Amino acid sequence: MSPDTPRRVRVTGGGPEPRPAVRPGPRSLPLRVGEGSDDIDAVYGRALRRTQLRLALGTVAGFVIVTVALTVALTAIPELDHVVIAGVPLSWLVHAFAFYPVIFAFAVLYARGAARNEQRYRALRDRE
């Protein structure tokens, strides 16, 4: 580098004073109710998220179990192939149309459960 070449300077959003090195602070433990936590809304928010996740996982698990049971029932009962409605075997009709009410039922159950969880959260939050 020649003496006439200006030195490269890194431009940051800060002012002319050098910025101190940022060190990660100690890991904080999650807030717990009853331990003097200042932000009780954070505790309630985490509880709501956990409850909603539990509801979602339970709904998906129930849906998968019912869907698999319906599929196994369709394959385990070969007599459904002998029943013909409008030229189409009953097993095909059940396979084509029986899943939609199951999907709708689980969607309604999930939506009602999620609304109930959020209503409980609002009741707890507003009580404080």
Q: Would you kindly provide a written description of the structure presented here, covering whatever features stand out?
A:
This protein is mainly alpha-helical. The protein is built from 3 helices and 2 strands, in the order αββαα. It has a two-stranded antiparallel ribbon. The chain is elongated and about 95 Å long. The N and C termini lie far apart (66 Å).
Which keywords apply here?
mainly alpha; two-stranded antiparallel sheet; 3 helices; 128 residues; single chain
Briefly, what is this?
This protein is mainly alpha-helical. It has three helices and two strands, in the order H-E-E-H-H.
Strand content: under 5%
Shape category = elongated
How many H/I helical runs? 3
Q: Which bin fits the share of residues in helices?
A: 55-70%
Sheet with the most strands, sense and barrel status: 2 strands, antiparallel
Low-pLDDT windows of residues: none
**Rg over C-alpha atoms, rounded to the nearest angstrom:** 30 Å
Lateral arrangement of strands in the main beta sheet: 1-2
Q: Please report the total strand number as a whole number.
A: 2
